[in-house]
Each structure stands twice: as structure tokens, then as C-alpha cells.
Design a protein that fits this description.
about 40% helix, binds zinc ion, about 300 residues, alpha/beta, TIM Barrel, five-stranded parallel beta sheet
Length: about 300
């Protein structure tokens, strides 16, 4: 069973502290390190690229695409969708599409909202994505979260009720009648490693692909401290929630990449299309970059 590995290509300070902050060159070093890590494991992923990062450092996307990874959109400015109007969202989205297309020669077909911020308050976003040629989104966390999530949303890939967009949520673990977030980001640091493998295995046992997300900076144990040293203000609560046990991420991810099979989202959806999809071949042709579908 193929599972989806996804990366939000962004810079820690600008994306976590404040979207008005400048993008730093940490992101160049971190992406290089991540590309080496993925190459070492022989795994390709989907990179949800932030337009603002790619605009400032135009060498990054071609290098990522060169390695055969799928390039998708993470919007332009890392603005929460549920705080935008439909017009503002469309503008941010289009700006990211233009940058990705100009740097890679391909229009992205996948989108992830910053901070999984497609919530009940902005369900207009799905049809807008569909109208702009997007085939899938990975923007809704199917949990009752404080900052994000739609509790009753299906846990595995399926079509939006209002358009032909596929939603492929980050995989959760169903326990005690709740969907628990366990895979990716801070959850990879804070949850027991065995729980993450268990969540992927449980999904695959029901013939559903799992999806894991992470960021380039998560492979760097002292990333938060280095921003502090550079003069960025990081409160102690944020330092604890963002930096605790970060050295665990690389070894844990290595173990998961050896234990399970991972691929870019486009390839996973081509192999395991959601119900009601006409034909996997048709999906493959429409969705995938050639390199991604050519057997990577
Ligand atoms: Zn992000």
C-alpha cells in the first residue's frame, strides 16, 4: 500500500511566528538537507510550496522538481484561509500558481491551506480551488481542534460535497470515539513513535492510504534556538511547543520511511483513487507530473 508523504515548503519564522516577517535563508539549507534525507531513503514526496519563499529564493523549486518530487501549492503569504475573503483567497492562490508555473513549467494540481485553515467558516474555498484547476486539497484536519479542524469530516480521501475536488486529510487515529492527530509536524515529536506506525498500519488494513506531513525545518534540532540567536522574539511557551524533542524527528521519520511505502500524493491517488472516481488511469494522466507517475 502506498502512503503519501507531504512537505510544507516554508521558513519557520515567517510561517510560525508572523507571516509579515521576512523569509530567511534558513529555508535553503533546510530544503537541501531534506532533499538529501529523502534521496538517502529513496522516497519522493509532494512539496506544498509557499509562493513567498519561492519568489525570494527562485533556485529552490527547480532543485526540488529535479529530484522528481511533486510540486503543489501552499498559497503565497501563509495567510489563514478562514481569515480571508473569497477574493483575497483567490488572489493569494493565483499568485502562488503563477510563481510555481513560471519556475517549474507546470501548474500545480494540489493545494494545502496554511495551518490547515479550511474550516467550517470558509467552505467556499473548495469550489474556488476546483475552478482554478486544482484536483486535490489536503487542507482539512478531521478533528475538533482549537486552531483548525472539522470534526465530522471523512478521515480518508474523498470528494468534496460541493465540487470535484478530492480532499486527502492528514491521517488520524480513531480511538475512544475521537479522531486523534498523531502523524506529522509537532505530533511526530510529541506522540509515541509506536502510535504513528500503528495509525498507518490501521489505515492500510482498511485499504486506505495514510498521509503524513512535515516541514523542512523539522530535521534541524536547534532551528528554534537559531532564530532566537538571530534576534527573532520567541516566547517561552512557543519555544517549548515548537522545539521540544525536535531531535527525535529525523530518526522517527527514517524508521517510518523504512517500514512503509511512501510516494507523492498524485501517485497515491492514482493508485488508490477515492470511491466514485471514474478510472485510475484517467486520474493518473490528469494529475501527475510525468516523473512522479513514471514509477518513482
Ligand atoms: Zn505552512
Amino acid at each position: 500500500m502506498l502512503n503519501a508523504l507531504t512537505i510544507d515548503l516554508e521558513d519557520w519564522g515567517q510561517s510560525v511566528l508572523d507571516p509579515r516577517l521576512p523569509v530567511t535563508d534558513h529555508v535553503i539549507v533546510n530544503v537541501d538537507r531534506l532533499l538529501d534525507f529523502l534521496k538517502h531513503h529513496g522516497v519522493q514526496a509532494t512539496f506544498f510550496a509557499l509562493g513567498k519563499v519561492c519568489e525570494q529564493f527562485p533556485q529552490i523549486l527547480p532543485a526540488v522538481a529535479e529530484c522528481g518530487h511533486e510540486i503543489a501549492s501552499h498559497g503565497y503569504g501563509h495567510l489563514r484561509v478562514d481569515r480571508l475573503t473569497p477574493a483575497e483567497f483567490t488572489e493569494d492562490l493565483q499568485r502562488s500558481v503563477d510563481i510555481i508555473e513560471s519556475q517549474t513549467g507546470r501548474r500545480p494540481v494540489g493545494y494545502r491551506a496554511p495551518q490547515f485553515s479550511i474550516t467550517q467558516d470558509c467552505m467556499w474555498a473548495g469550489p474556488i480551488l476546483s475552478e482554478h484547476g486544482f484536483r486535490y486539497s489536503s487542507s482539512i484536519f478531521p478533528i475538533h481542534g482549537l486552531r483548525y479542524g472539522i470534526g465530522g469530516w471523512p478521515r480518508f480521501p474523498g470528494f468534496w460535497p460541493t465540487c470535484r475536488l478530492i480532499e486527502f486529510p492528514v491521517t488520524t487515529l480513531r480511538m475512544f470515539g475521537l479522531n486523534l492527530p498523531v502523524l506529522g509536524g509537532g505530533y511526530t515529536r510529541l506522540m509515541p513513535a509506536a502510535v504513528q506506525a500503528h495509525a498507518i498500519r490501521r489505515a492500510n488494513e482498511t485499504h486506505e492510504p495514510a498521509l503524513l506531513y512535515m516541514h523542512p525545518y523539522e530535521l534541524v534540532p536547534d532551528e528554534v534556538d537559531s532564530f532566537r540567536r538571530d534576534g527573532f522574539k520567541v516566547s517561552w511557551p512557543r519555544h517549548v511547543t515548537q522545539a521540544l524533542w525536535r531531535s527525535r524527528v529525523a530518526p522517527r521519520l527514517s524508521r517510518l520511511l523504512r517500514q512503509f511505502r511512501f510516494a507523492p500524493v498524485c501517485k497515491v491517488l492514482a493508485v488508490s483513487p477515492p470511491k466514485r472516481m471514474a478510472a485510475p488511469d484517467e486520474l493518473a494522466v490528469e494529475m501527475g507530473p510525468a516523473a512522479c507517475l513514471a514509477g518513482a
